[in-house]
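Q: Could you write out the predicted structure for this multi-component system? I'm mainly interested in how the pieces pack against one another.
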Amino acid sequence: MLDGAPSAEAVSTTPRRLFALRIVTVLSLLAGTVYLVWRWGWSVNWDYWWIAVPLVLAETYALIDGYLFGFTIWRIKRRGAAPPPSPDATVDVFVTTYNEPVDLVMTTALAALEITWPHQTYILDDGARPEMKAAAEAAGIGYVTRTDDWADRPRHAKAGNLNNALLQTSGEFLMILDADQIPKPEILDRTLGWFDDPEMALVQTPQWFSNVSASDPLGSQAPLFYGPIQQGKDGWNAAFFCGSNAVIRREALMRLGVTGYVKAVESAVRAALEASERILARAARRARKGDIDTAGAISQVREGVRTALADLDDGAAYGDVTFRFQSTVRTASRSVVDRDLAGIAADLAELGYTDEVGITADPETGIPMVQEDVLHELTTRDLSPLAALEEVAQLMRKVDVTRSDEAQPVMPMAIVSVTEDMATCMELHAAGWKSAYHHEILATGLAPEDVGTMLKQRLRWAQGTLQVLLKDNPLKKRGLTAGQRLMYFATMWSYLSGFAALAYLLAPVLYLTAGVLPVHAYGLTFLALFTPYFLLNQLVFGIVGYGVRTWRGHQYSLALFPIWIKACTTAVGNVWFGRELGFIVTPKVREGGRQPFPWRLIWPQLLVMVLLTLAVLSGVVQLMTTDNLSVIGVGVNTIWVLYDLIVLSVIIEAALYRAPEPDPIEDVTNEELVS
Amino acid sequence: MQIEQSERDGVVVLSTSGRFNMMSAPRVKTRIDETVAAGSARIVVDLSEVDFIDSSGLGALIGGLKTARQAGGDLRIAAAGEQVVTVLKLTNLDRILTPFDTVEDAIHEW
């Protein structure tokens, strides 16, 4: 632990404070609603609608955010200690790694070995590094890498790593630890008891970082999230899974995997059958030109497609239907294939190839395959039936129950998003499982140590969360309760703040420089309605965040506006337009050497800060020399700018931040642990 | 759990008994893989003596189905008890793999 860092103790909300919190929350939302009604109804300056409307929308966004926050904290749940665990619970502890240094992974893995509850420890090495394997084996720790099935198939990052390991292990529960998250020995004794409830699927504990100084300029600690927000979500049975420091019931995950498999097969088979009509019609047209056998075979296949679709509509099992369809196709093509094989053999002989070229049958489809170069020769001689049959072969591969586009038919961890944790958790809740947030720090990790790494991490979280929103909107998702819908939506909504921030930052600049007034007047009515709302809102956070530092979180929700906007645009590009998102693994060790000031990463914030400062100067000069601006207008906007500047200043602090050298004593301990 | 193997009409019947759960699922999957590798891709898994199956057990059946299909064969399940049928319904897996009433039915419909 670094000097001056806050102690690793979770702060809790007492019943009396919860009561006060509810009252202040209601008052704050009332004041906010009155203010916003006035803003929409009476204050918007439509002459400058292009800034007036964005600004009032931004304020509406913030009020909705306030309502969602109010819902969240309304039901803050203080669980206390878990009941004693069932003595025969078996646990696998997974330490996930991709490219973190072997020493760092081993420190965590050796700490995992020391967990007192009986368990198996595994290192899930997605990098398949020989030195990692050697270190794991030397310490008697299980070592898991991807099976051959993953070659040439989507890897799905960490979700794939976990899915691969799930099929190679067998504990009743699994605990997931990121490579840097060092667990305390009692972590399982403290958490397993919650699984006494047979519907409990997941227990999440806080993430706490040991390499962060008291002022935490990178905003790594998230005491508001790992505290009132998670406890509030827990009250609605919507405690989030955060990827690490969590225990999960294997049965819950496997059930997701099985139901997901059924869904994937159903939609893939249907889609392939429905799309086949067009493909087969084209193949038939081509074949009809003088090849009656092939045309006949294709019409048999088309009949097979129609039968399959009809059978599925009648509720026949996909296994039977696909098997029958495949048999139909095999029979239909056999006659053509036999004839063609004879023809091909003759053609090949003519071309000078001998029998050794070997025409083999595809083991899955029974359709003949020939070597690439030979095939080329044949197709240039216009042997069209081969091409037609190839299309049929592709259709056969798709109309199957093997889910052959993925490495494993069963994918328990969700693969729809780069933040597999949130997506999986939402699936669990939708399937009726429960989750718990256990408010006790039982593992400590390493936070990013420079602004660049921190920005990448935040971008990934935001992108993943927005991917889930766009692909699987919780407000419409079947199986979730109303409260759960709101809890998921609240987190997604909070990532849209970048656009609101733009309006908040630009409106005062426009007024102070060009006299563009987004409201009719910054008069007494404005102050009388805005001030109570603002103060009550601050009070809510004062109560909810009593004893923890919530200011950093506030600063970053505004100061990272370029990241939030980028997350929105890239997530939309990915989900709606199929563009690459790019998976970023957050490095756990800092890069060596002196780091220059990261202008490239934070120039938008710096530019806005310069604009804000110049705008105040411009406002003051205009106030003294012209009648364009009012005193109260300049006053309000100057205070507003000062607030913006104070909030944004965190990014400069972050850019200047250099992580302290690790404590030499801790280094020695690490050495001992590794050797 | 126990796995017994027999052969009828060119079809391999794997008779399982006991608890088909996360502990035993990997063994069943391995046995199916070995059977297919040995050249028998038509497999019936007899579940009549299984008194409990969980989702890991279903996962092993799905994995076995994939192995068999890739070798040009098929995997079928037969004689599922009440608990097995309930779990198949709960996960919707009965829409893919419908259990045959008896091992004989599963073999004859091939």
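A: Regarding packing and overall arrangement: The mean pLDDT of chain B is 94.
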